[in-house]
TrEMBL record:
The keyword Transmembrane helix does not apply. This is ABC transporter ATP-binding protein. Residues 26-256, 298-534 form the ABC transporter domain. PANTHER family: HEAVY METAL TRANSPORTER. The keyword Electron transport does not apply.
C-alpha cells in the first residue's frame, strides 16, 4: 500500500482484515454500530485488524469513534457496555489492558497502593513482592509519591493518568490499548510515560489513540497509522512517513493533529484562526478594549488556598486585567487547578482577594459567596463531567441561562450559536455522557462561554481536542479577550502559552513562582503591571 494516495490506500482493507486470523491480535469485520439516541452510524461496514506485535496509531477528528473502536477491539463494546452493534466476525485479544481517556473511570479502589495491589493480587503475586513492584512501576511512569497510601481523589488529573497507566503495566498484558494516555500530562510526564511504554513494547501489541504524536514518532513507537474520518470511515493506513505525505489533504481538511500543524495556523483580522500562514507572536491587530482600566479585575496579595488543613497554592502578589489572556503552566500536581478552584471560591482561602473591587475568600466556604463569584466568573473544570447537570446537550448549555431568568428566545439564540461555535450541532439530543471526551470538553466550555462573564477560568480546555476544535476554542477566547474579558487558562501546550496567550503564570510546588508577558504579549500594547500599577492605554 506504500506510496498510494489516501483515498486509494483503503482499497484492499477488507481483504487484508480477513486474512490469517492466527497472526491477528484483534480484528472486526463488517462492523456496524449505532449509539442509542444517535441518528447516524458510528461505523458502517468497517473491517479492521491489528497484527500481533504491531504498533498502531489511530488518528481522527474528535468524535470519529476512535475510543469506541478500542472498546470494540477489546470486547468491552458490546460485552460490558450494551450498544447496538453488528459484525460478521471478530477476533478478541486473549490478554489485554486498556487505559481509558478518563482515568477516574477505571479505578477500583480508593487508595493508590490498594489500586496497584488489586492488580497484583489478581495475578497471584506474593505479598512481599508487591511493594517493590509498586514503587518500580510508579517510578517508570514518573509518579513520585513519598507516601503511596494516598487517596486517589487528592491527585491531579495528570497524576491519576500516570497511576492508571501504572496499573495497566502491572497487568503485563499482551495487548496494550491506550486511549490518549498523555492528554493530561505536562511535557516531562509525556516523555516519561512514552519511555515507560517503550520499555515493554518490544514483544507486545500496541493500539494507541493520541492527539499529541511528536513523542511517539520520535521514539519510533509506531509501525502503522490508521486514519479515520469524522463519520468513522477508514480513510487510509500505512507507515507514518507514507501516510503523513499521502494523506496530508485529509489531515488538513479534518483538522487532525500531524507534524507541523501549528505552523499552518495564524491569527488574522477579526481574530479568526485560519490555515495558510504561520502562527507568529503578535500577528493580527490588537484591539484594546475601552473597559481595560487601570484598576485590575482581580487583585491577589498573600493569597493561599487550602484542601482541608493543607495549603495547596500560595500567591504573593498577582493581578488580572481586562483583556488579559493568561496561560497558567507548570508540572502535574503543582497546584494549577487548585489556584482556579480557590479563585472560584470552591476551595477555602486566606489573604487578600479582590474581584471587581469586592473582597472575597475565607477559610469557610459560604454558598452566598460562591453564588456571587459565579455571577462574575465563568468556570470550566478539568474534568468536564463534574459540571454536567442535564440529560441533553442543548439543555446543558442552556441550564445557567435559565437559572438567570433569560427569555426562551434569548436562550434558544445563545444555545444555537454555541452549538455551531463548538462543533456540537447535530448532537443536541445526545446525553452529555454519551459524547466523546473532546465533545464533553467543548460542551463544558460552551456552557461557561454563553454566560458572558467578565472573567473566564478554563482548566485545560483543549485537552482531547483535534486541531480544528483546539483552534476554534482559542479563536473564541481571543474574541472574548478583545471584547475585554479576562481569560485565565491552565494549559500544558507551549504553543498556547507563548504564541496565543499574552501573559504566563508559572506554578511550581504549590506556589505562583513567576509571572510575566509571553512572546506574543511583549509585542502587544499592554499595561506595565510589575509593580502592581498600570499605565493607561494610548
Amino acid at each position: 500500500m506504500g506510496g498510494l494516495h489516501c483515498e486509494a490506500i483503503s482499497s484492499d482493507l477488507h481483504a487484508e482484515a480477513t486474512g490469517d486470523t492466527v497472526s491477528l491480535a484483534a480484528a472486526v469485520w463488517d462492523l456496524r454500530l449505532k449509539f442509542p439516541e444517535g441518528e447516524a452510524f458510528v461505523f458502517k461496514d468497517l473491517s479492521f485488524s491489528v497484527k500481533r506485535g504491531e504498533k498502531l496509531l489511530v488518528l481522527g477528528p474528535s468524535g470519529s469513534g476512535k475510543s469506541t473502536l478500542l472498546q470494540v477491539l477489546a470486547g468491552i463494546v458490546p460485552g460490558l457496555v450494551e450498544v447496538p452493534m453488528r459484525c460478521s466476525g471478530q477476533v478478541l485479544p486473549a490478554s489485554w489492558g486498556m487505559l481509558f481517556q478518563d482515568p477516574d473511570a477505571q479505578f477500583c479502589m480508593p487508595y493508590v497502593d490498594e489500586e496497584l495491589a488489586f492488580v497484583l493480587e489478581n495475578r497471584g503475586v506474593a505479598r512481599e513482592e508487591m511493594l517493590p513492584r509498586m514503587r518500580d512501576v510508579l517510578r517508570k511512569v514518573g509518579l513520585d509519591l513519598k507516601e503511596i497510601h494516598l487517596l486517589i481523589g487528592t491527585l491531579s488529573q495528570g497524576m491519576k493518568q500516570r497511576l492508571a497507566l501504572a496499573s495497566i503495566l502491572l497487568m503485563d498484558p499482551d495487548v496494550l490499548l491506550l486511549d490518549e494516555p498523555s492528554a493530561l500530562l505536562d511535557p516531562e510526564g509525556r516523555r516519561q510515560i512514552w519511555e515507560a511504554v517503550s520499555e515493554v513494547a518490544e514483544d507486545r501489541t500496541l493500539i494507541i489513540v493520541e492527539h499529541r504524536i511528536e513523542e511517539l514518532l520520535d521514539l519510533g513507537l509506531v509501525d502503522r497509522v490508521a486514519l479515520f474520518g469524522p463519520s468513522g470511515q477508514l480513510l487510509g493506513q500505512g507507515a507514518p512517513e507514507e501516510l503523513f505525505v499521502h494523506c496530508r489533504k485529509e489531515l488538513e481538511e479534518y483538522g487532525i493533529w500531524h507534524p507541523g500543524v501549528w505552523s499552518r495556523f495564524r491569527f488574522t483580522a477579526g481574530s479568526q484562526i485560519e490555515q495558510g500562514g504561520s502562527l507568529q507572536p503578535g500577528s493580527g491587530p490588537f484591539l484594546p478594549s475601552a473597559e481595560r482600566l487601570d484598576r485590575p479585575i482581580i487583585e491577589l496579595s498573600e493569597f493561599r488556598g487550602f484542601r482541608g488543613h493543607q495549603k495547596v497554592i500560595q500567591v504573593k502578589r498577582a493581578e488580572v486585567y481586562a483583556g488579559d489572556f493568561i496561560a497558567v503552566t507548570g508540572p502535574n500536581g503543582a497546584g494549577k487547578s487548585s489556584l482556579l478552584l480557590a479563585l472560584m471560591g470552591l476551595l477555602p482561602s486566606e489573604g487578600s482577594y479582590h474581584l471587581l473591587g469586592e473582597r472575597f475568600g475565607g477559610k469557610k466556604l459560604r454558598k452566598r459567596q460562591v453564588q456571587s463569584l459565579s455571577k462574575r466568573i465563568g468556570f470550566v473544570f478539568q474534568n468536564p463531567e463534574f459540571q454536567f447537570v442535564e440529560n441533553r446537550v442543548d439543555q446543558e448549555i442552556g441550564f445557567s441561562l435559565r437559572e438567570e431568568g433569560l427569555s426562551p428566545e434569548e436562550i434558544r439564540q445563545r444555545v444555537d450559536h454555541a452549538l455551531d461555535q463548538f462543533g456540537l450541532a447535530g448532537l443536541e439530543q445526545r446525553h452529555p455522557y454519551q459524547l466523546s471526551l473532546g465533545q464533553k470538553r467543548r460542551l463544558s466550555v460552551a456552557g461557561a462561554a454563553v454566560l458572558k462573564r467578565p472573567v473566564l477560568l478554563l482548566d485545560e480546555p483543549t485537552f482531547g481536542q483535534d486541531a480544528v476544535n483546539t483552534f476554534a476554542i482559542l479563536n473564541l477566547c481571543e474574541d472574548l479577550r478583545r471584547s475585554g474579558v479576562a481569560i485565565v487558562m491552565v494549559t500544558h501546550e507551549e504553543q498556547i502559552a507563548e504564541a496565543v496567550a499574552t501573559r504566563r503564570w508559572e506554578v511550581r510546588e504549590g506556589t505562583l513562582t513567576d509571572y510575566g508577558y509571553t512572546d506574543r504579549g511583549t509585542l502587544l500594547p499592554h499595561h506595565i503591571c510589575e509593580a502592581g500599577m498600570a499605565e493607561a492605554m494610548l
